[in-house]
Amino acid sequence: KQEVTQIPAALSVPEGENLVLNCSFTDSAIYNLQWFRQDPGKGLTSLLLIQSSQREQTSGRLNASLDKSSGRSTLYIAASQPGDSATYLCAPIRAGNKLTFGGGTRVLVKP
Amino acid sequence: EAGVTQFPSHSVIEKGQTVTLRCDPISGHDNLYWYRRVMGKEIKFLLHFVKESKQDESGMPNNRFLAERTGGTYSTLKVQPAELEDSGVYFCASSQESLMYGYTFGSGTRLTVV
Question: Taking the CA of residue A70 as centre, how many other CA atoms within 13 Å lie in the half-sphere pointing to its CB?
């Protein structure tokens, strides 16, 4: 059974700082891993999708790394902005297309 | 391209009543999934359709929940009768046949049972 842990659970930083969000998962037999963002009262917005054969994926200020063998992924957000305030969710995808979510990291970027 | 659409966005019902949630996936996406988050817990898988067939319904909590996907297009999730512990946010997602493209989620339906 896949278990996903995200550390820290919450993070508060001043604007401009870089963010590092960690995700660990117990079952390394994954197809890929997806990072999502959730704003309060909203749905999940896909940020990055990393294939199991890749080690990282980048989109703008976001960079996600994947170390499948050790069961870890890290999301880096450079030069944070108040608009980055949200909950960030990590979800590895296993056999049967099933996503398993971590508890998320709640980020607050203060102006 | 239209995204995944869910409605209603909010529903407040009394314990014992019936509620039906609807999800319209992205056109052409054969895979459709239901997930839910109850208060203070992580988002959990409920079930997975491939076209009109249930591929995996291992996450359905009990037989008060019934999901259908007639014709392989939109899906409904009915809760009958609703209990207090069913309160939460129900998310629908869809994906293409290949997992290379990941999932697209809807905005969710917030269900409150009072």
Answer: 9
Beta strand residue intervals within chain A, DSSP E: 4-7, 10-14, 19-25, 32-38, 44-51, 56-59, 62-67, 72-77, 86-93, 105-110
What tokens appear for B32 in the block?
């459709």
> How far off is chain B from A37, nearest CA to CA, in Å?
11
By the CB < 8 Å criterion, does A32 face chain B?
yes
pLDDT in tens, A7-54: 999 999 999 999 999 999 998 888 899 999 999 888 899 999 998 889
Measure CB to CB from residue B102 to each of A46, A89, A98 and give the nearest one. A46
Find the helix or strand (DSSP H, E) in which B61 lies.
Answer: none
A96 touches chain B (CB under 8 A): yes
Q: Cα separation of A25 and A31, whole Å?
A: 13
Q: A30 to chain B: which residues are within 8 Å by CB?
A: none
pLDDT 10s digits, A52-92: 889 999 999 999 999 999 999 999 999 999 999 999 999 99
The closest CB to that of B42, out of A34, A46, A101, belongs to A101
CB A3, CB A25: distance < 8 Å? yes
Q: What letter represents residue B3's amino acid?
A: G
